[in-house]
Amino acid sequence: MPEVPVAKTSQIEELKPFVVKTADGRKIGIYKFKGKYYAYENVCAHEGGPAVEGVFVGHNTCEFDPVSGKRLKEYFSTEKYDIICPWHGIQYDLETGVCTGDSRMELTSYEVVIDGEDVKVKL
Question: Cα separation of 94 and 33, whole Å?
Fold first, then answer.
């Protein structure tokens, strides 16, 4: 697989999505989290929406009352983050690209290579 330069390391900030368009027309979101880089194609596995153009939030979990089923508390993590597609709110784990609500769906991921100051994606 060819390594395609997409950015400089200085352009990608921690927890700030960076969207690039490759020469073949693909839009790819590059993410930096805890010093690691992740890259996903801008196509939601649900209905083809622009997944990497959505919001980026701490992973949320809820605590429910076992009898009534009512939500008691909601927690947002600062240790784990999700990418949320703007079309229907489908959430994907930032580190795996797997949908948090249905593990059968996942974003197309690309390996990221750091070469000095260059951020490259294996296409």
Answer: 9
CB 91 within 8 A of CB 101: yes
In this prediction the pTM is: 0.85
Give the CATH number of domain 3-122; options: 3.50.50.60, 2.102.10.10, 3.40.50.150, 3.40.50.300.
2.102.10.10
Return per-residue pLDDT of the chain as tens, 123 residues. Answer: 789 999 999 999 988 889 999 988 999 999 999 999 999 999 999 998 999 988 888 787 778 888 888 888 887 778 888 999 999 989 999 999 999 989 999 999 999 999 999 999 999
